[in-house]
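Following up on my earlier message about zinc ion. Here are the inputs again, as you asked, copied directly from the submission form:
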Amino acid sequence: MLIAPSVLASDFSRLGEEIARIDRSGADWIHLDVMDGHFVPNLTFGPPVVAAVRKCTDKPFDVHLMIDDPMRYVPEFQKAGANLLTFHEEAARDPDRTIEKIRSCGMKPCMAIKPATSVETVFPYLGRLFMVLVMMVEPGFGGQRFMPEMLDKVRVLKKKKPDLLVQVDGGVNEKTAAQAARAGVDVCVAGTSVFGAPDAAAAIRALKAAGGEEPG
Ligand code: DX5
Ligand code: ZN
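Thanks, got it. Here's what our run produced:
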């Protein structure tokens, strides 16, 4: 199981150093939460900040857009150095064209769904998506409780398309990572449980061990 620490839980006054630190601590990808204050009731950062921290690591940037009309900003995130670009199905005016635009900009297209959105919503796009992000909490804030019933969506997706990458985000800790792994999750996002831990490397090793992987 891959671990993508979410910098939302990091010390923003030292964002570059925090990213370098989780890179050294064994993060597989760096998860960057972009919020616009419209799609979600919170604001974070946009392309200039992503571009500024691009030099702090060579690990893939997994950018989670929680913004309305995501298609509009695809080229800017490509220039900023995003590798995977995840948009919410609920926010896209035209999901097909958004996927195509992400792909034509050389990034991996990924689609996210909120807890109230049914898993069937993503079915028409599965052939063209690199990954589906199943939200385990309402998007907008870190530190919320994992909703285990959302793992049913993961089971459905892995049954329908075993080679599709499935990511979960929100409330992932050692205990819930084990539940996620049993449901077939490939990538766990973890904010509080990594950045809130005294030793990020130990936290990432523990998540991977919970996910069934021998720490290496
Ligand atoms: C929430 C964000 C998450 C958040 C997860 O909207 O998408 O990535 O940072 O934080 P934790 O792991 O603390 O639930
Ligand atoms: Zn996220």
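One observation from looking it over: The longest strand covers residues 30-35. Hope that helps, and feel free to reply on this thread.
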